[in-house]
Amino acid sequence: MAAASDIWGKDVTLNAGQCIKITARSGRGKTTLVHFLSGLRYDYAGTIQIGTYNPLTCNSEELATLRRESLSVVFQDLRLFPQLSIRENTELKKFLPRHPLRNNTIEDMAGQLEIETLLDTPAAACSYGEQQRAAILRALVQPFQWLILDEPFSHLDNINRNKAIALISSVAKEQNAGIILLDLEPDNYFPYHHQLQL
Question: pTM for this structure?
Answer without folding.
Answer: 0.92
